[in-house]
Write a structure and sequence with these properties.
Elements lengths: L13 H4 L30 H27 L8 H20 L3 H7 L14 H29 L56 H28 L3 H27 L9 H22 L9 H9 L1 H18 L9 E3 L5 E5 L5 E4 L5 H7 L11 H4 L1 H5 L2 E6 L1 H4 L9 E6 L5 E6 L2 E6 L6 E4 L4 H7 L2 E7 L1 H8 L48 E6 L7 E3 L18 E12 L14 E11 L2 E2 L3 E6 L4 E7 L3 E2 L6 E9 L18 E9 L9 E9 L4 E4 L5 H6 L9 E4 L2 E2 L2 E6 L11 H13 L4 E4 L20 H7 L2 E5 L11 H18 L5 E5 L4 H11 L3 H23 L5 E2 L7 E3 L4 E2 L13 E3 L19 E4 L7 H7 L11 H5 L16 H15 L17 H31 L9 E4 L22 H9 L3 E8 L4 E8 L6 E11 L4 E4 L3 E5 L3 E9 L1 H4 L9 E11 L3 E9 L14 E5 L4 E6 L4 E7 L6 E5 L9 E3 L5 E7 L15 E3 L2 H6 L4 E6 L5 E8 L26
Parallel strand pairs: 11-20, 24-25, 24-33, 25-26, 26-27, 27-28, 31-32
Antiparallel strand pairs: 1-10, 2-3, 2-4, 4-9, 5-8, 5-10, 6-7, 6-9, 12-13, 13-18, 14-17, 15-16, 15-19, 19-20, 21-22, 22-23, 29-30, 34-35, 35-39, 36-37, 36-38, 36-40, 40-41, 42-43, 42-50, 43-47, 44-46, 44-48, 45-47, 49-50
């Protein structure tokens, strides 16, 4: 801001000096009596109407300035503000605040306190400067109080501030855990320890500019100063005679100062817990109203208050608070300005460099980003379209057949280097995909070939010359496809028969340490991506330590979003936390009463030599801390890693145990580690670095020991080996799904997407996910080891176990030394990184390879060669690596295995068993339609870790992938091209085996359900008409219904097996999530939409479930109740009722009271012969049975469940028009009723662009895909996920309802219409009518509903 020319006669400085002042009288100096010359009487009374209007005008400007940044940041999906504009406004507003402090406050104060209106005593000393100095002392006192008080308050929210005032944010990377002796000394010490801020579970691309605590307290100080002066500036405006000019200036000032305040409130809100996110809004509102309040107050006292009086000059200009309030603002701004790391960056984020991406011949050069992958950068540059569209997995093959180079100018980094500095510099890559040469300023640094490793290189020798001459950082990626072909052609490379697991890309993937799914699978595309797919940094280590303290913002190795400017002495490259029972190991069972051992291993690189460093551990919630353990001397050589390993013993009873969510509380604790590094000065305090990691106490076992003879004789169990999990010594039923990668391109996965998938699993009753071995090693969180998004942290918090696997899948593995040399550090790093997570249930050596090698051994004359290689790799090599790094997590050789003959030494069983006994676990994939409900085709197993059937995604998912209306058909070229089952086994396109997969879905649906038409005007003979779209949508839904039917049947069969001789204690469905929009086995689509299967799984996975088991050959019906409640019997009532298809009750069987034991079942009905089973006079096509159960679960309240039995295929039944009506109320509540017949598998779909689930309005349980019976309402509510939904406020009219009955009317050319009232509460009447005589239906694309029309199915 500036001031007007003195000749203008309209404005002078003193009008802007009054608004930062509080009224504090200074009695020690004489005050000259007010005279007319010095301004007596009241303030100006001109422009009274405009002064009143100014209240509202300035209110609008202030509110806009302060609220806009907050709203823009919170709703960035909808309020698109370019970063450049946002940054300009923010810092321009900051400039307004600073200018106010230095230009319009201090200089006018000097003038006013030298006024002739004051006595001579005021002129003998520069009181304005003295009072300024006094205000500086005052601000430090206030800051001290504010930070101490604020710290105490914010600590309750999970934040911490270190006492030395240093920012959070040093650095680190992932690390080894060594198994030391069990002679451990520890002590319990009650201490007052601060907790470190818990890391956010969601970190997107927005920069985290500073530690949240620093921002929160800084913003609080800023807000205090601004609010203080805003009231007083309003007071001045109300009475000043030079109103008009001052009014214009203050509108400008308040608006842009509001932007400065609002921008910091906006950034602060990202770091607050959800419950406190509105604090930023309240702060913006407070700023907006303060000046208008001051104006109103000034108008009220305008006849008595005179701003030009002697008293006003002294009071307002001499008050220490005049400087105090504005210095509050300047201090807060300096906190914010410190976020710009101009001079020195301890961790320099390589994403801040200007990157380019080019192909090998240089014909394509586009901007690059980090983290990213070539496809994503080509997409951003407009070179390619979205890879997941249409047939782009075929048309974009040229991308992965080329070599790609990422290059960045290092000038911005070199600007941070201090000349002649002896600091040391590390280059850290948390993930490179996959084959690359790294060059720094023209100097070759390394060649890498493993996607699953982190890489740290010492650049110190190269920094001086590079900084002087400049240069680039270059990462030159080689095509993984060509690399695989080359390396497998080496003379010493092993030969593998039959292509060795080629699904699509024949690249010898078994030689490439890269995500195996990248080369294609029978449900996945092959994009073979490449790039710097995780964050990367240049880390500068100081050459000496000082007496400061640093608190890291996350568990090391740290990967901040943005550079940091702390002065760091050490880089923590790895952290391993292994918590186990004293004396336990892979071979020794845990004693549940023994002490806990907390084994912490740190890999440290140091920039300075440190003698006698120590580390101390603490659990603040439990008020316990360890002694200060002395760790090895740090030699100050950054090219060397020093391992520090400490073990702390804690009594068993001190912590509560972590349990999966359905078995107890997933209790987590903050484990704080503080490193104390003595400085070179013996009198100085040591340099301290601390961090907090979330972990839990639990024991987890995969029990594969022989079945005790006592269980064989007393319980009637089949002999052989056990296979089940135990947590904290308790066996339980493992219910869950197999998890695949969330996206073909890791770098664009977000925590919101992952959290929704995992939360969906928990909501549907699952307690385990299997992290499939053909995918990626999932991260802990975004801020650790370059995670990009959170996974295992979420599993810990949600209480869901994560069966984890090393990344070998469906292919025999080489054991060449050059290959194992890369695998060893990969395994060690990742076992150590994930040890701390109580959710990790086991490490399996790979996926399905044991079965492949057994088959190879039996089918090839030289098959023993491959069996021996398997033993070397999975029995010996991987086993030894895993068990040397972890005592808490069990190991098994393969996802599906026959177990072991011996545990110590570890010797696999293979086919060495007794006939008739049961060993290991099992799978089932049977695509013969007639076998779907044939229990004789289900495995009799201890545990089934893969079983599933594929289905189409919804029409809404296809909308995301298809562009042409003609493509929306079951057998269109594009749809079939995305069917990868059975896989092509080569680069052939379209997949020649796709018709097999399409046929499996259609034949199964035709066998068991009423199906849409195959031929005719509305068939897959493509026309793009509305009726064809309806047919396609109906087929998508119908395949999902069959998928749900058959998988629910299997789940219940295996649950019933817990009480049978096989003692089945686990079923893991294939699969949970999708990697793209295509036919797959998933229960959740790519964008997060629940399939029918997800709701069916929820019913089948409830603690108490009821299911009709029907054996048509024997005409036997058994209705059983299953329980997975631990430790107690459950009592309840079962009800079985026969209905006809009109909805009339034909026969209600007497209610059955039952008791079901823990992990067992009880039959509540067992009848044989149709004459006995069916109601008198009824045939199998005439009736169906509703079975439901109500039970009281100890400690869990009332549990209800229902299921449906039809004695014949639904395809054989003549369904009656259900005439469904839907009443929609508030909060997306839908009341569904059938006015005609029964509507089997009634399905309500939410519109395109929305993600969420439907729940029962009364019980809160997920509810959809049910039988809607006349006279029995179903009330469901849609619960949206606002973080993933692109449509935040969907219209009820865009929801769609359908049932299997709708399939029957598509053959007749009928349509479904809906009339909607325009009231607040909409009444939707849904019925079927003949289309003859009506105009043709409009083309319909789901999610874009027509006004006044809501279809039951897309018409």
């Amino acid at each position: 801001m500036g001031q007007s020319s003195p000749t203008s006669g309209t404005f002078n400085n003193k009008h802007l000096t009054t608004y930062a002042i509080m009224t504090v009288r200074t009695p020690s100096l004489a005050i000259r009596d007010d005279t007319d010359d010095c301004g007596s009487g009241g303030g100006a009374d001109t422009f009274f109407g405009l002064r009143i209007a100014s209240i509202f005008i300035i209110l609008v400007g202030s509110m806009f300035g302060s609220l806009f940044p907050v709203i823009a940041m919170r709703y960035s999906k909808y309020v698109k503000v370019p970063n450049g504009i946002f940054e300009f406004a923010k810092w321009f507003g900051s400039g307004v605040i600073i200018a106010t402090a230095f230009i319009h406050l201090l200089s006018p104060a000097i003038d006013e306190l030298g006024s002739d209106c004051l006595s001579d005593a005021w002129k003998g000393y520069p009181y304005a400067l003295a009072l300024c100095l006094l205000s500086i002392f005052g601000i430090f006192i206030v800051e001290l109080i504010a930070f101490r008080w604020g710290t105490a308050k914010l600590e309750k929210l999970g934040f911490v501030y270190d006492a030395h005032g240093h920012e959070a944010g040093a650095h680190a990377a992932p690390g080894p855990e060594s198994l030391a002796q069990d002679n451990i000394e520890g002590e319990k010490d009650v201490r007052d320890l601060s907790r470190v801020m818990e890391e956010e579970t969601s970190r997107g691309n927005d920069a985290v500019l500073d530690s949240p605590l620093t921002q929160i307290l800084g913003v609080a100080i800023l807000e205090f100063g601004v609010v203080l002066h805003s009231v007083l500036v309003g007071l001045t405006l109300a009475v000043d005679p030079d109103f008009k000019v001052l009014f214009v200036v203050l509108v400008f000032h308040q608006t842009f100062e509001g932007l400065g305040v609002g921008s910091r409130l906006a950034y602060m809100q990202k770091h607050l817990p959800q419950a406190y996110r509105n604090v930023s809004v309240y702060g913006a509102l407070l700023y907006g109203i303060t000046t208008p309040v001051g104006i109103a107050a000034g108008l009220g006292v305008r006849t008595t208050y005179n701003p030009d009086s002697t008293t006003a000059s002294i009071i307002m200009m001499s008050s220490p608070f005049s400087f105090f309030s504005k210095r509050c603002q300047v201090k807060a701004l300096l906190l914010g300005l410190s976020l710009f790391h101009c001079a020195f960056a301890a961790i320099f984020d390589l994403s801040e460099l200007s990157w380019s991406l080019k192909n090998e011949n240089g014909s394509i050069v586009v901007p690059g980003t980090v983290p990213s992958q070539a496809h994503i950068d080509l997409l951003k540059a407009g070179v390619i379209t979205e890879p997941l569209l249409e047939i782009n997995d075929f048309t974009q093959r040229w991308v992965w057949m080329d070599n790609w180079t990422y290059t960045a100018d290092l000038s911005k980094f070199f600007d941070t280097i201090q000349p002649a500095s002896s600091d040391q510099t590390l280059l850290v890559f948390y993930g490179l995909d996959t084959i690359a040469n790294i060059t720094f300023a023209g100097i070759p640094i390394a060649w890498v070939n493993n996607q699953f490793r982190q890489y740290v290189y010492d650049l110190t020798p190269h920094i001086p010359a590079a900084a002087a001459s400049g240069g680039n950082l270059t990462v030159e990626f080689k095509s993984a496809f060509w690399y695989g072909l080359n390396v497998s052609s080496r003379p010493d490379a092993e030969f593998f028969p039959g292509g060795n697991g080629v699904f699509e890309v024949p690249a010898a993937r078994h030689y490439i340490r890269k995500q195996q799914i990248d080369f294609g699978w029978d449900w996945s595309p092959a994009f073979v991506p490449t790039g710097i797919y995780k964050p990367a940094y240049l880390v500068t280590l100081a050459n000496e330590s000082d007496a400061s303290s640093i608190t890291l913002s996350s568990t090391p190795p740290l990967s901040p979003s943005g550079s940091t400017n702390t002065s760091d002495v050490i880089f923590i490259e790895e952290v391993a936390v292994d918590i186990y029972k004293l004396g336990s190991s892979f071979n020794v069972l845990p004693d549940q009463s023994a002490d806990w051992v907390v084994n912490v291993s740190l890999a440290i690189r140091a920039g300075a030599s440190v003698e006698a460093p120590t580390v101390q551990l603490a659990l603040p919630e439990l008020d316990v801390s360890s002694e200060a353990f002395t760790i090895p001397t740090l030699n100050g050589h950054a090219n060397e890693t020093v391992w520090a390993i400490v073990q702390w013993q804690i009594p068993d009873a001190v912590p509560q145990r972590w349990y999966p969510h359905n078995l107890g509380t997933p209790q987590l604790y903050n484990l704080t580690a503080t490193l104390s590094l003595p400085t070179s000065s013996p009198t100085s305090e040591p340099h301290k670095v601390s961090f907090t990691t979330r972990t839990g106490f639990r024991t987890i076992r995969l029990v594969q020991l022989p079945v005790p003879q006592s269980d064989v004789t007393e319980r009637g169990l089949t002999p052989g080996d056990q296979y089940h999990f135990e947590v904290n010594g308790k066996e339980f039923w493992s219910k869950g799904s197999n998890l695949v990668p969330f996206d073909p391109f890791y770098s664009r996965i977000t925590t919101d997407r992952v959290q929704w998938v995992l939360q969906s699993a928990v909501t549907s009753g699952q307690n385990m996910v299997r992290v499939w071995g053909g995918g990626i090693l999932q991260p802990s969180n975004a801020g650790t080891a370059g995670g990009v998004y959170a996974f295992y942290d979420l599993c810990d918090e949600l209480g869901i176990l994560a069966w984890s696997e090393f990344l070998f899948s469906d292919a025999l593995s080489p054991i060449n030394p050059f290959f194992l040399e890369s695998v060893e550090p990969e395994i060690r790093e990742n076992v150590r990184r994930l040890n701390r997570h109580p959710s990790v249930a086991q490490w399996a050596g790979g996926n399905e390879i044991e079965g492949i090698v057994i088959s190879t051994n039996q089918s090839l004359p030289n098959g023993t060669i491959y069996l021996d290689q398997f033993v070397t790799m999975f029995q010996d090599f991987l086993h030894d690596l895993e068990t040397s790094e972890s005592r808490s997590v069990p190991y098994t050789d393969c996802s599906t295995t026959k177990g072991f003959l011996s545990l110590d030494p570890y010797i696999l069983r293979f086919d060495n068993g007794t006939s008739g006994d049961i060993y290991g676990n099992s799978e089932r994939f049977d695509y013969t339609a007639t076998d779907a409900f044939d229990y004789s085709t289900y495995p009799i197993a201890r545990f089934v870790n893969e079983f599933g059937f594929h289905s189409m995604p919804s029409i809404y998912a296809w909308e995301q992938a298809l562009l042409s209306p003609e493509d929306f058909a079951f057998n269109s070229t594009v749809v079939v091209s995305r069917e990868h089952h059975n896989p092509a086994g080569s680069l052939a396109f379209p997949n020649p085996n796709a018709p097999e997969g399409q046929a499996e879905m259609t034949l199964a649906a035709e066998q068991w359900l009423p199906v849409p038409p195959f031929l005719g005007s509305n068939s897959s003979i493509i026309s793009g008409s509305a009726q064809d779209n309806a047919t396609f949508a109906a087929w998508c839904y119908t395949t999902q219904v069959f998928q749900a039917l058959t998988i629910a049947s299997e789940i219940n069969f295996y649950r019933r097996g817990a009480g049978l001789p096989e003692n089945n204690l686990g079923g893991i469905v294939w699969q949970l999530n999708d990697i793209w929009q295509a036919p797959s086995w998933s229960s959740i689509e790519f964008d997060g939409r629940w399939k029918v299967l997800a709701y069916a799984e929820e019913r089948a996975y409830r603690p108490i479930t009821i299911h009709p088991f029907w054996i048509p050959e024997a005409e036997n019906l058994e209705v059983s109740v299953m329980s997975d409640i631990l430790g107690s019997d459950v009592q309840g009532t079962a009800q079985m009722t026969w209905y006809d298809w009109s909805g009339k009750v034909v026969q209600a069987l007497p209610a059955v009271k039952f008791t079901v034991p823990s992990l067992n079942f009880t039959a509540v009905l067992n009848q044989t012969g149709l004459d006995t089973i069916l109601p008198p006079g009824k045939g199998v096509q005439d009736v169906w049975m509703l079975v439901n159960v109500t039970a009281e679960v100890p400690g869990g309240g009332t549990v209800t469940n229902e299921n449906y039995f039809t004695p014949t295929s639904l395809g054989n039944v003549t369904l009656i028009d259900p005439e469904i009506t839907v009443n929609t109320g508030y909060s997306y509540e839908f009341v569904l009723e059938a006015k005609g017949g029964v509507a089997p598998w009634t399905w309500i779909e939410h519109p395109a662009g929305t993600v969420g689930m439907f729940i029962d309005a009364y019980t809160g349980s997920p509810s959809n895909a049910f039988y809607l019976i006349p006279g029995i309402q179903k009330i469901v509510r849609f619960i949206p996920n606002t973080a993933l939904s692109t449509v935040q406020d969907p219209r009820p009219i865009d929801f769609v309802v359908r049932s299997l009955f709708n399939n029957t009317i598509l053959d007749t050319g009928s349509k479904v219409e809906t009339e909607v009232a325009v009231d607040e509460v909409q009444v939707i009447s849904i019925s079927t009518v003949d289309t003859i005589g009506h105009a043709p239906a409009k083309p319909y694309f789901p999610g874009h509903g027509h006004d006044g029309q809501i279809p039951v199915v897309p018409p």
